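Journal club prep — side note

Before the paper discussion, L.F. wants everyone to see what a predicted structure for a comparable chain looks like in C-alpha cell form. Sequence:
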Amino acid sequence: MWEFEQLARRKGFVRIAGVDEAGRGPLAGPVVSAAVILPFPFQVTGITDSKKLTPRKREMLYGQIYAHADAIGIGIVDAGEIDRTDILKSALLSMKLAVDNLSPLPDIVLIDGIFTIAAALPQKAIPKGDSLSTSIAAASIVAKVTRDRLMERYHDDYPEFGFAVHKGYPTPFHKQAIRNHGCSPIHRKTFKGVKEHLNLSYPTPSGVQTSDGRRRALV
C-alpha cells in the first residue's frame, strides 16, 4: 500500500497527496472528495478502500487520519452542479477543490481512477488506487465519512426519504420514496429514477452547506 508513495519519494517528492471521491452513484446529495497528505512513515493499520470497511471502522480510522495527517482538504459539489454538467465533471471538480484546499499544497497528487484533474501539479491517476495506495485509501475514508455525515444532516430536513440509512443511494426504499413524494432540492434531477418524478418541490434546507469546499471536517 506504500509502493506509489515510495516511488514518488525516490523521485524527490515529499508532500504526497492521495485523492478520492465518494458519491458518484447516489440519486441525491453531493459528490464529496478528500485530499490527504500523510506523514511518512504512517503507522495506523487497517486503512484500505472505504467500501471494504464497516461504518464503525471507517469512523475510527477517520478520527485517526485527522489526528495524524499533515494536511486534509475537502471538496464538495452539490446536486445542482451535477445536473448542470454531469457526474464525472462534478467528481473531478470536487477533487480539484479538495486539492486546492490543502495547506500546504502537495508536491504530487495520486488520484483514484483513470482521470487527472485541472491542477498545475504533478499527478498520477491510479486505477483501483484506493486498494493500492495508503494515501488514496485514507482520502476515500475521509470522503465517505464526510459525505455520510452530510446525508445524515439532510435526513433531518427530509426524513421521508431515509437519507440517514441509504445516504442517497438507489435502494428500493429510496426509489419508492421518490415515487411517493417526488424529489427534494438535493435530488439529482437529471438521474434516471428521479427525473421521472419531478412533480413536488420542497423548501431549501437550512443550516447545511452542500458546496463548501473549504470545510475541513463535519463534526
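L.F.'s comment for the group: Helices lie at 3-10, 55-68, 79-84, 87-100, 134-157, 163-166, 172-181. Keep this in mind when we get to the figures.
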